[in-house]
Amino acid sequence: MKKKIWIGTNWKMTKTIAEGLDFTHELKKIAEAISPNIQLFIIPSHTSLFPIKEVISGSTIYLGAQNMHWEDSGAYTGEISPRMLDEIGIDMIELGHSERRQYYNETDEAINKKILAALEYSIKPLICIGENIEQKNNLISKETLSAQLKVCLKGLSKEQAKQVVIAYEPVWAIGEQGIPAEVEYVEEIHDFLRQTLIGLFDDTGMEIPVLYGGSVNHDNFLNYINLENVNGLFVGRAAWEIDSFQKILYQLESHLFD
Ligand code: PEP
Fold this sequence. Notes:
Elements: E1 5-10, H1 17-33, E2 38-43, H2 46-56, E3 62-65, H3 82-88, E4 92-95, H4 98-103, H5 108-120, E5 124-129, H6 133-137, H7 141-152, H8 158-161, E6 165-168, H9 183-201, E7 210-213, H10 221-225, E8 232-235, H11 242-257
Parallel strand pairs: 1-2, 1-8, 2-3, 3-4, 4-5, 5-6, 6-7, 7-8
Helix pairs in contact: 1-2, 5-7, 7-9
Bound molecules: phosphoenolpyruvate (PEP).
């Protein structure tokens, strides 16, 4: 049985502070009712981080931000630094979501700098990787993912590698137009990612949680979580309404621990 299951959601640019607070109050009650082996996390917009931190303080829910710069301070209009996020007391930072790569040209090199900066503040990097449909069709998914991992994780010690969480999110499976991935495909890729992490960090590679994300919903999430090298789920739309997220969490709890 898996020691710990990670499950959380990135709200993207959807919830206001008031909407985020309503959700968080409910999630806090759910967190108290389910096993502490289910590690919950939420990733609101920057504007909501501070008020939500006040609500979840003392709970087991991790709070993450959706992006940050790698510098502590400087002339970078519109950016937020690790020092500022640390002041709020966030636990995680999501880096490299495919929308940031696609719309804001975020590169693996930039993500690597952000990861190293986050680790300086003991903020856990949640690193998103994934191939796009052209890469999949050209049969270079594994090469793409291996390159993303190698560049993003460049220069990390084994101790630092223990702090990261990887989210594998095939770009073609994400969002409204996303096509849910075949379970066999997810299994093959997660096994490959595990071997790649072991290649980079020896046995420490076994300890790095690798989550799956992309059109995860009530009907398919158990198929993914049952896979040996899937340590959790990164859920978008199916977790944005608290009732829908609660349904997944209670089902997960009874599947794992009853
Ligand atoms: C995402 O955008 O990272 C995601 C997992 O979204 P969805 O579950 O809605 O496909």
